[in-house]
Specification:
This protein is an all-beta fold and about 140 residues long. The protein has one domain. It is built from no helices and eleven strands. A seven-stranded antiparallel beta sheet has the order 3-2-11-5-8-9-10, with no helix packed on it. It has a two-stranded parallel sheet with strand order 1-4. The N and C termini lie far apart (about 70 Å).
């Protein structure tokens, strides 16, 4: 999904294998992901989307410092969705830490490795059938 502050920006869903770039969208102060081919369209990610960055991930607080995460892979997700009027989109790294997408330094490239599995509405998870009337067969050994 795209963060709440990108409601006035054109969006489209991410595709497996595409390269996306961190950018600040015109008319907003929000950073997010866009296609290399069209930086004006936000590429929206579903929670669970896996990304591979070209380099170790860099982030900042926009004013004072830039830091680097010692990782090139991460999973898109949401943080604190119950708190309104704030950024929720984040990248979670293998060590369990996360960085808000809006804090990612501009110009970083990432490849969409995998999208999460989703089920169409109305379909329910099928449970495996248990066959209760079958008993395991154990070979009998001769006594003696």
């Amino acid at each position: 999904m795209c963060d709440y502050s990108l409601h006035a920006v054109a969006t489209r869903p991410a595709e497996v294998g595409e390269t996306i770039v961190t950018t600040t969208f015109r008319g907003t102060s929000t950073r997010g992901f866009a296609s290399e081919a069209d930086l004006s369209v936000a590429v929206c990610l579903l929670p669970g989307t896996e990304l591979a960055f070209a380099d170790n991930v860099r982030y900042d607080n926009r004013w004072i410092w830039t830091r680097t995460v010692n990782s090139r892979v991460g999973k898109f997700g949401k943080v604190d969705p119950h708190i309104p009027d704030r950024h929720h989109d984040a990248i979670e790294f293998p060590d369990g830490k996360y960085v808000l997408v809006t804090q990612l330094v501009e110009g970083q490239r990432a490849t969409v490795l995998q999208l999460p599995v989703t089920q169409p509405l109305g379909e329910r998870e099928q449970k495996p059938q248990i066959i209760a009337d079958r008993q395991p067969t154990v070979p009998r050994l001769p006594i003696g």
